[in-house]
Design goal:
With 424 residues, this protein is an alpha/beta fold. It has 11 helices and 15 strands. A hairpin with a 2-residue loop joins strand 1 and strand 2. Helix 3 runs antiparallel to helix 4. It starts with a strand and ends in a 9-residue tail after the last helix. 51% of the residues are buried.
Length: 424
């Protein structure tokens, strides 16, 4: 999911784009048609939230093939965007075997130089540095810390890139010393970066691949609860937005403050019930951008975001899509406008034009969906990028399930949602 930013009268223009498992012509058309909607020369930088390698079975892949796909894809990105930097993060498919990443201390060491997957981290970080996207210090950290890094853009935004496989359910190495939710140290890295940003009054965007919540099926309970706690601690003052990929759909998840009743006393410590949240206190939004890949039963899509150049809050979002059901009539992929978030989701038209599309904006949407079936069907359609195969969500039970997922920023919250009532 690349994110392209430019500076126009106090606003950055951002594109959310997810790339993987897409036919080559469809993926490349993202760049070749970009100037229909924005000027490529205006793009300040790109954020890519991962998944390059094809979704084939592990026995059909090889290290050489993974290295080839990664090298070619980043070469395409560089050629398409020129001197405009790209800030990537790793997806679960950017590894071999898929989703496997080991904590540095699993073999007794902790410096990251002898990690089983160092070959991948070294390759990726060296390409990023060679292209001028990160500096030498950041490259060295990424090479020894799972591809994670933090970088300050020319505009002053701190981008913190995390390897989300360390909370992904399919990474078997997460079950090594399962009592420690941060065996890899990835959350300690996030905390230290956010503390530094807080001390300097600098705002950040946190980027990762696998969402920590929504339906709860993709993330481990304790690590996702820890991520939630970190987001709650540093939002909204320091974190301006969180971006995920992975689902291939156009979705959101909202983080809330904890309820006063969430604190309890243990035998020797204070205990937090991280599922006891205050749904009247939204504090951060997590965007799951749509994918170029139509896998499965979806259209292709990406989003253009307007971001305030001082606060780095998201001010506007437009979605563009290619209708795969019309693909047999194409000579080249045809991209078209789908919807504007401020227009489509501005409940009762009361949201001020100068206010960001933040957690409160989307909480208003989620609450309205419980009583407004039109909004439910609209959100449901946009999730699939207006696919003709979109399943109906016409019952009150389906609406409740969908709203519950939107309001779930951790796996435990998603697990608590009613299941089986929606088009999932």
């Amino acid at each position: 999911m690349p994110v392209f930013l430019r500076h126009v009268s106090g606003i950055f223009i951002v594109i959310l784009l997810k790339w993987d498992q897409s036919p080559a012509d469809l993926a490349l058309s993202t760049f070749s048609t970009m100037d229909q909607f924005i000027k490529r020369s205006d793009v300040a930088f790109t954020i890519f939230t991962g998944d390059i390698v094809s979704h084939d079975n592990d026995d059909q892949l090889s290290r050489a093939y993974v290295e080839y796909e990664e090298s070619v894809t980043y070469a395409v990105f560089k050629a398409a965007m020129g001197n405009s930097p790209i800030y990537p993060t790793l997806g679960n498919h950017d590894s071999l075997p898929e989703a496997f990443n080991t904590p540095n201390n699993i073999n007794g060491g902790n410096n990251g130089t002898n990690n089983t997957f160092s070959w991948n981290y070294n390759l990726l970080s060296s390409m990023w540095a060679q292209d001028g996207w990160i500096n030498a210090t950041e490259q060295q950290f990424a090479a020894t810390h799972y591809g994670a890094y933090a970088h300050t853009t020319a505009q002053g935004l701190r981008i913190i890139s995390l390897n989300s496989d360390f909370w992904y359910v399919d990474n078997i190495f997460n079950y090594f010393n399962f009592t420690n939710p941060d065996q890899s140290g990835i959350f300690s890295f996030l905390i230290s970066e956010l503390e530094a940003c807080e001390a300097k009054g600098q705002r950040s965007h946190v980027i990762a691949h696998v969402p920590t919540g929504y339906d709860g099926s993709q993330s481990l309970t304790n690590p996702s609860a820890l991520f939630y706690s970190i987001v709650r601690r540093f939002s909204p003052a320091t974190i301006a937005a969180v971006f995920f990929g992975h689902t291939h759909e156009d979705q959101i998840q909202i983080f809330y403050d904890y309820a006063p009743t969430s604190i309890g006393k243990g035998a020797n410590s204070t205990i937090r019930n991280t599922t006891d949240v205050d749904y009247n206190a939204p504090i951060m939004i997590g965007f799951m951008g749509p994918s170029i890949t139509p896998l499965t039963g979806l259209n292709a899509g990406y989003q253009v975001l307007q971001v305030d150049s001082k606060t780095f809050d998201v001010m506007g979002i437009q979605t563009y899509f290619a209708n795969i059901s019309e693909s047999l009539t194409w000579k080249t992929p045809v991209w078209q406008f789908e919807y504007d978030a401020r227009t489509a989701y501005n409940v009762n038209g009361t949201w001020p034009k100068t206010s960001p599309l933040n957690a409160t904006f989307y909480n208003n949407l989620a609450n309205a969906m419980l009583t407004n079936q039109t909004l439910v069907e609209q959100y449901n359609k946009f999730e699939t990028k207006s696919s003709v195969t979109t399943k109906n969500c016409t019952s009150a039970a389906c609406a409740r399930q969908k709203v519950c997922y939107i309001k779930s920023g951790s796996a435990a919250l998603g697990y608590n949602c009613p299941y089986g009532n929606g088009p999932f």
